[in-house]
């Protein structure tokens, strides 16, 4: 399938397209925005919880700072953790899953057993306990830990995909034509798995956002700097939920996170219809 | 192998049970090594703390730690492990750091039922409602109900459940003041004698209402969408077409031909739901100050109360494993293909 | 070596070939041997056609895969041009690999859906250094498409498989095998999924390649009529439950079948001729059920269904292939003769 | 052949499928009659619209299929009923009781989580058979008729039966209510030769003993040769020739029918003159102008590219839709 066809199919699914643009917008805002909009760090006691104005579209926080600038600056770390976790766990999952599916036999059984055990352990509590033992004071460590905990389901689905592609007649034909292992893996099998990998990548990104914000909310990650998760925790512990005037402070980060999660999942759903011809319907 | 053993080996239930205990065994072992061997492991941390705080020797601090953890820290690691496993097997989890003298097992007995109660009821309600809604919109796809429910489902199922919880708290509790959430802290009404009185039952239900609502809202979307999906797939199956050709009543086809087959794949999701909900309960229960096992876990985390933390983690894991087992059993009851695959 | 120079040299030989799998029932269950092929032997000369005919599950596809070197036999020997490929050094094995190609049943499965026709055919050309650059490859691909009658080639070369019909895809699959100049092609139900109106054209194309290139065919099919059409001058082997029941020249098998199984098959086939098909005498089976490979009967594997079985003989001993007339071998204690229809 | 009374009349039936690229014209202007106790075979290749048409006879075509025009009349006791205008309740009573259908997908025709016995009972209940014992007695009788062990089959799930067994169970089930018409869609094409033979013999027996009218939908000419009284060939959704089995095999006129016969090798016949039809089956969305067969026809005239021929009578019970019907007869 060509890129053009993919774009055409994306255009057909309106919700997916909205998701795609929201996602793109949030990423741009988080990575480019900080260079455009400076972080407001001036404490203004007289303007605490000021209502939104044109100059401060989201109003002021508990110390009279502009909430909008905090939102712009608070995305980068959250998204970096999400993307890093996504990349890492997808890589681990892809290699282990593909390897397991390819090699079969006892090694396969063993890897899948490990995956099974991993899958039955509730991930978030394990993460909490680990966070209490390890000091997760930088986003790379956090991403690494999240990735280590989130690869098993992906590995399993990659494996089943490999198993199903592996037995296709065109793989057998490629073997008969002696096209070589490299060709078979990268030209015959991999392109058929791309859709799967991308969708799973998005899922592990959203899972990483859930986990990291959850950890931050419970105060288990001693991170500093601007961060949507920290904003929520801050607003929550300062009791921002109790006053109408302070609602924007807690609602703003909640809404961007929710928006990110929704957009990612909506986009991945439309990708699913693109990569799964069965859902695409007869063309 | 003797015949009766072979028969046992082929028994689906027994094999699942064995697998379950093997997993539990492994998890217990893992937590042991996590606490014992990880860099900066809690025991070392505790020992160093005690040394710097009270100025006692390493030996003394170690002895204190050993008595708290119920571990003989001087014996070889594998002896410690065997010892630990033995204690775990009889439910001896040691004592809490933060409330000295309280056995961890007692805390668990106090907290766990509330989580099981709230999560269990939520899953049940959400599953039933979600399935009906999903099936309904699969039959009426393209209609206005489909648009509304599908959009609702796609939004609620993607927003993290604790954010849903905070939003609920803000709108129902603070803004609209429908639910007096500050009175609703905890799990049971104060001053009401526990028992099967209407007042008490209503009380515990009212206390759980916000967490349950959170669980339901954040999981029902998933059920709706998956059920819509599987229903639509099943509706296209040949046997449904043949059932129509046989002149069967629509209601019979919907329930026995489409419904039963469309629900089957959802059981794997059910398993994941149970894990996710119980696993996510530390956040939800903290938000609503609902004193279940998750609340206890996040409390123990905040106070770095390692024995409690460790035991609760085990407990959560074991409940999830048991829930998986139950879902599997249910699944094998509903799908005749499972059994024959195993005994093949 | 030109195909014509050594018309009778054997290309491939299978000797007492057995394929079995160990199947475990349950995690701790006892492992049992599932014998897919039992004692399969045949020789195929250059430019010859052998059709393997049988019902689903008889092991005919496995025979094809063993002959193509995809499946390693459990015991027995496979000789390609006198050499056992499984004992060859690696470079010689790859050479054997290239000389032996396969055409699969389902053209929807045998072409990678994410590749264009050009990619599919050019990959082996580049791999085996038959072309140097894109331009040459494109020319060569066009030439091959022309050869399998996919014209105008520009309509096809940049399409994806799902844009082609079944017959066109099967032609692409044939063109792909031609990239490596095969000597021996295993055609596994190669036309059974195609529409009747175009089926023969693909068969004819395969026959043309035999004439032009001297290709040797192992033609696997469940359809005796197609086997007869394709392998008129060749031979047929009839398989049942992993064994060859009868083998001989195609027309001899069709007109003078000796094994009761072959006779029942022939008498059962409906013919596209109302008079003939309605006047056929049908031989009744004793049982409609095919025994499971896990639980094979003692003696002749066909005896539980055979109307002509000899009690005390067929249910005790297993017959072996015997030459009944020159080139006509049958594995039966009670062979018949004469046409059935 | 002694012909019974008319039981089914299809007149000018046209069905489109809605698709992104435009309407798929699956069935175009199809008319035919079916008589009591007769065996009508509808021959067509993949994508010819034959399955769509079969389904529409009991109003079971998928939602994306739209019946554009035409009538389907079922005759019972001298009265005609319009299938297209039946209510849901009427249709329910009509299906299986009057017209039963054995599908191509018999391998997947049974609910995988319900025992076969229950599915027989379901069928009986749906048609007001109240007595479970009576339904089961009849089911067992029918299963024995199709040479199956009733006790075993009734207590099975579908995955415990082989393909041939499932097909026979479905045939037995189709006879449960003594229908007047039995539609069989590619009912033997996925089966082995010996199983296929069993089914064919079974169908002959059903026809002889029960006097049911059959509509066979198939791509297999040899099946038609064996079973049909009359044959209809369809190409690109349209009837191109219709006649008695003898007429079709001996005096076929339409180049497509003739081509199909020439493309079907037989075991006993000779190979001379066997050849494919050139070209490929048409795209039902972008049909050629004029006669839809013109790209594959051996001797098309300019007229063939402009005008689509009507189905006209060229002899007793023999109809053909070809502009050169007169010339091409030999």
How far the N terminus sits from the C terminus of chain C, by CA atoms, comes to 44 Å
Radius of gyration of chain A: 22 Å
Q: Can you tell me the overall shape of chain C?
A: globular
> What is the average per-residue confidence, as pLDDT of chain A, rounded to a whole number?
84
CATH class of chain A: Mainly Alpha
Oligomeric status: heterotetramer
As for the number of domains of chain A, it is 1
Protein chain pair with the most extensive contact, residues per chain? A-B, 44 and 47 residues
Task: Please state how the strands of the largest beta sheet of chain C are arranged side by side.
Answer: 5-6-7-3-8-9-11-10
What is Rg of chain C? 21 Å
Assign the structural class of chain A, choosing from mainly alpha, mainly beta, alpha/beta, alpha+beta, or little secondary structure: mainly alpha
SS summary, helix count of chain A? 12
- Residue stretches of chain C low in confidence (pLDDT < 50, at least 5 long) are 1-6
Q: Kindly name the structural category of chain C.
A: alpha/beta
Proportion of helical residues of chain A:
over 70%
Helix % of chain C is 25-40%
Q: What's the pLDDT, averaged over the residues of chain C? A: 89
- The name CATH uses for the topology of chain A is MetI-like fold
- The CATH architecture term of chain A is Orthogonal Bundle
Key terms:
heterotetramer, A: 12 helices, disordered C terminus, C: 341 residues, eight-stranded mixed beta sheet, three-stranded antiparallel beta sheet, 30% helix, 22% strand
Describe this structure in words.
The complex is a heterotetramer of chains A (283), B (344), C (341) and D (330). Chain B is mainly α and 344 residues long. Chain B has helices spanning 3-10, 12-37, 42-54, 58-69, 77-89, 104-139, 144-156, 161-175, 198-235, 238-245, 250-263, 266-287, 293-302, 306-334, 336-343. In chain B, helix 9 runs antiparallel to helix 12 (266-287). In chain C, 30% of the residues lie in helices and 22% in strands. In chain C, helix 3 (117-127) packs across helix 4 (134-147), helix 4 packs across helix 5 and helix 5 (166-178) runs parallel beside helix 6 (196-213). Chain C contains 10 helices and 11 strands. Chain C is of the alpha/beta class and 341 residues long. The relative contact order of chain C is 0.13. Helices cover 29% and strands 24% of the residues of chain D. Chain D is globular. Chain D starts with 5 loop residues before the first strand and ends in a 10-residue tail after the last strand. Chains in contact: A-B, A-C, B-C, B-D, C-D. Chains A and C meet through helix 8 and helix 9 of A and helix 2, strand 5, helix 3 and helix 5 of C.
């Amino acid at each position: 399938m060509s890129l053009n066809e993919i774009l055409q199919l994306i255009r057909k699914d309106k919700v997916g397209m909205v998701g795609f643009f929201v996602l793109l917008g949030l990423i741009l805002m988080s990575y480019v925005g900080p260079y455009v909009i400076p972080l407001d760090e001036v404490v203004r006691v007289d303007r605490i919880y000021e209502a939104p104005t044109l100059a401060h579209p989201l109003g002021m926080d508990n110390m009279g700072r502009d909430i909008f600038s905090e939102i712009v600056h608070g995305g980068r770390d959250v998204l970096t953790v999400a993307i890093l976790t996504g990349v890492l766990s997808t890589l681990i999952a892809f290699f282990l899953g593909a390897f397991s599916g390819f090699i079969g036999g006892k090694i396969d059984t063993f890897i899948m057993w490990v995956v099974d055990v991993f899958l039955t352990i509730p991930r978030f509590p394990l993460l909490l306990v680990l966070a209490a033992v390890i000091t997760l004071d930088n986003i790379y460590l956090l991403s690494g830990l999240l990735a280590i905990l989130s690869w098993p389901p992906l590995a399993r689905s990659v494996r089943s995909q490999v198993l199903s592609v592996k037995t296709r007649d065109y793989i057998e034909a490629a073997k008969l034509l002696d096209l070589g292992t490299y060709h078979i893996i990268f030209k015959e099998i991999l392109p058929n798995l791309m859709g799967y990998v991308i969708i799973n990548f998005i899922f592990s990104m959203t899972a990483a956002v859930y986990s990291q914000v959850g950890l931050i909310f419970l105060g288990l990650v001693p991170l500093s700097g601007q961060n949507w998760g920290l904003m929520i925790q801050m607003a929550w512990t300062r009791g921002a939920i109790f006053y109408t005037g302070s609602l924007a402070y807690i609602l703003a980060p909640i809404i961007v996170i929710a928006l990110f999660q929704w957009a990612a999942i909506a986009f991945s759903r439309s990708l699913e219809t693109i990569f799964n011809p069965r859902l695409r319907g007869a063309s | 192998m003797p015949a009766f053993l072979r028969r046992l080996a082929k028994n689906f239930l027994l094999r699942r049970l064995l697998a379950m205990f093997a997993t539990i065994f492994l998890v217990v072992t893992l937590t042991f090594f996590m606490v014992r061997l990880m860099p900066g492991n809690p025991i070392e941390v505790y020992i160093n703390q005690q040394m710097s705080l009270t100025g006692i020797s390493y030996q003394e601090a170690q002895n204190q730690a050993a008595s708290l953890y119920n571990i003989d820290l001087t014996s070889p690691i594998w002896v410690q492990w065997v010892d630990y496993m033995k204690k775990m097997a009889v439910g001896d989890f040691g004592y809490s750091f933060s409330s000295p003298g309280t056995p961890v097992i007692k805390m668990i007995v106090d907290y766990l039922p509330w989580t099981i109660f709230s999560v269990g009821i939520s899953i049940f309600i959400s599953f039933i409602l979600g399935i009906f809604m999903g099936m309904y919109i699969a039959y009426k796809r393209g209609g206005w109900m489909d648009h509304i429910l599908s959009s609702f489902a796609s939004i609620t199922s993607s927003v993290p459940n604790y954010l849903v919880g905070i939003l609920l708290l803000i709108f129902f509790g603070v803004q609209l003041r429908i639910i007096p959430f500050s009175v609703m802290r905890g799990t049971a009404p104060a001053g009401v004698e526990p028992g099967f009185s209407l007042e008490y039952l209503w009380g515990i239900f009212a206390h759980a209402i916000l967490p349950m609502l959170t669980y339901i809202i954040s999981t029902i979307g998933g059920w709706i969408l998956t059920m819509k999906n599987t229903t639509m797939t099943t509706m296209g199956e040949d046997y449904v077409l043949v059932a129509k050709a046989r002149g069967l009543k629509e209601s019979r086809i919907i329930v026995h031909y489409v419904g039963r087959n469309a629900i089957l794949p959802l059981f794997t999701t059910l398993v994941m739901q149970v894990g996710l909900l119980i696993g996510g309960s530390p956040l939800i229960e903290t938000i609503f100050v609902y004193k279940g096992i998750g609340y206890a876990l996040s409390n123990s985390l905040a106070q770095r109360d390692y024995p409690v933390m460790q035991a609760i983690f085990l407990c959560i894991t074991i409940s999830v494993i048991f829930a998986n087992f139950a879902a599997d059993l249910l699944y094998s009851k509903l799908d005749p293909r499972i059994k024959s695959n195993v005994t093949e | 070596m030109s195909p014509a120079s050594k018309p009778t040299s054997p290309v491939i030989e299978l000797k007492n070939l057995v394929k079995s799998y160990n199947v475990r029932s349950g995690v701790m269950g006892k492992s049992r041997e599932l014998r897919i092929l039992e004692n399969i032997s045949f020789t195929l000369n250059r430019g010859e056609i052998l059709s393997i005919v049988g019902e689903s599950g008889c092991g005919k596809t496995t025979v094809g895969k063993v002959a193509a070197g995809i499946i390693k036999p459990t015991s027995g020997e496979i000789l390609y041009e006198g050499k056992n490929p499984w004992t060859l050094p690696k470079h010689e094995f790859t050479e054997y690999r290239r000389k032996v190609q396969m055409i699969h049943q389902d053209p929807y499965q045998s072409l990678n859906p994410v590749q264009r026709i050009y990619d599919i055919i050019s990959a082996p050309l580049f791999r085996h250094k038959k072309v140097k650059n894109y331009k040459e490859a494109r020319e060569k691909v066009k030439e091959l498409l022309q050869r399998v009658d996919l014209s105008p080639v520009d309509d096809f070369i940049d399409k994806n498989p799902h844009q082609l019909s079944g017959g066109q895809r099967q032609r692409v699959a044939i063109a792909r095998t031609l990239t490596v100049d095969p000597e021996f092609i295993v055609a596994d139900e190669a036309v059974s999924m195609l529409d009747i109106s175009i089926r023969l054209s693909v068969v004819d194309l395969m026959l043309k390649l035999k004439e032009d290139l001297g290709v040797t065919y192992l033609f696997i099919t469940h359809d005796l009529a197609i086997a007869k059409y394709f392998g008129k001058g060749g031979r047929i082997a009839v398989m049942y439950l992993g064994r060859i029941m009868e083998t001989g020249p195609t027309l001899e098998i069709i007109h003078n079948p000796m094994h009761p199984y072959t006779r029942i098959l022939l008498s059962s086939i409906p013919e596209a001729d109302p008079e003939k098909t309605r006047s056929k005498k049908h031989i009744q089976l004793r049982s409609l059920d095919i025994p499971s490979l896990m639980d094979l009967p003692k003696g002749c594997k066909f005896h539980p269904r055979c109307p002509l079985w000899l009690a005390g003989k067929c249910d005790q001993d297993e017959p072996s292939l015997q030459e009944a007339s020159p080139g006509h071998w049958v594995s039966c204690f009670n062979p018949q003769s004469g046409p059935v229809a | 052949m002694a012909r019974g009374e008319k039981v089914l009349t299809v007149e000018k039936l046209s069905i489109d499928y809605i698709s992104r690229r435009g309407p798929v014209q699956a069935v175009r202007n199809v008319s035919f009659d079916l008589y009591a106790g007769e065996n009508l075979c509808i021959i067509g290749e993949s994508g010819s619209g034959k399955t769509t048409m079969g389904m529409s006879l009991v109003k079971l075509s998928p939602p994306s299929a739209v019946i554009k025009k035409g009538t389907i009349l079922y005759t019972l006791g001298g009265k005609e009923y319009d299938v297209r205008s039946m209510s849901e309740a009427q249709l329910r009573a009509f299906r299986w009781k009057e017209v039963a259908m054995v599908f191509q997908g018999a391998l997947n025709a049974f609910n995988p989580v319900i025992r076969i016995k229950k599915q027989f009972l379901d069928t009986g209940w749906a048609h007001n058979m109240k007595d479970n014992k009576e339904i089961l007695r009849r089911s067992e009788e029918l299963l024995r008729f199709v040479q199956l062990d009733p006790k075993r089959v009734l207590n099975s799930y579908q995955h415990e039966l082989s393909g041939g067994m499932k097909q026979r169970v479905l045939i037995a089930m189709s006879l449960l209510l003594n229908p007047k018409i039995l539609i069989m869609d590619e009912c033997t094409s996925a089966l082995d030769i010996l199983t296929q033979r069993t089914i064919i013999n079974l169908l002959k027996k059903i026809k002889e003993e029960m006097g049911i009218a059959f509509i066979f939908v198939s791509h297999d000419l040899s099946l038609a040769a064996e079973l049909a009284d009359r044959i209809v060939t369809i190409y690109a959704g349209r009837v191109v020739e219709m006649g008695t089995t003898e007429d079709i095999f001996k005096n076929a006129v339409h180049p497509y029918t003739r081509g199909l016969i020439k493309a079907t090798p037989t075991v006993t016949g000779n190979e001379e003159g066997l050849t494919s039809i050139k070209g490929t089956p048409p795209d039902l969305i972008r049909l050629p102008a004029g006669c839809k067969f013109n790209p594959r026809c051996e001797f098309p005239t300019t007229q063939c590219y402009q005008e689509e021929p009507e189905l006209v009578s060229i002899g007793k019970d023999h109809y053909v839709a070809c502009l050169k019907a007169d010339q091409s007869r030999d």
